[in-house]
Design a protein that fits this description.
With about 160 residues, the chain is of the alpha+beta class. It has helices at about 35-50, 100-115, 135-145; strands at about 15-20, 30, 80-85, 115, 130-135. The chain has one domain (about 15-145): 2-Layer Sandwich (Muramoyl-pentapeptide Carboxypeptidase, domain 2).
Length: about 160
Amino acid sequence: MLTSANGWQVSLDKVGIVNYMVPNTKRHFSCRASVAPILINFAAEIHKLEPIDTGVFDDWGWQVRKVKAGRKYSNHASGTALDINATKHGWKATRSGYTKKQERIIDILCFDFGIRWGWRYKFGFKDPMHFEIIESKLQVKERIAAMKLSMPKEKTK
């Protein structure tokens, strides 16, 4: 079984991956169904800090690829990561593109949702657009229940 950097199973053929609408936006993300309540509701919280549904469509979820700085599969390949407002918060950035107050709020949101923010990576480069699940399947299930998160609406064609 192929796994992504966070240990979740890679979906080469989009099995288990669904396209969900972010509440109160025109944006949608493809992600693993079992983490959708976390990732999609997290994206909705980011939208409150900074609109995610304006300008170009620069918000991504599931995509099969390897980590740019390594050999493992990206967490995008398991549907457990999102890139939000990518053109504003670029990979290998020297600044996050958020205000200090927004950064503090994002840190709190990441803690609350069990997410790691690429801006807080300890190794080589920073990736302020990137947010990823850092918990196990059981921990994610327990967090969804504890936070009383509901399944987001699927995007219809």
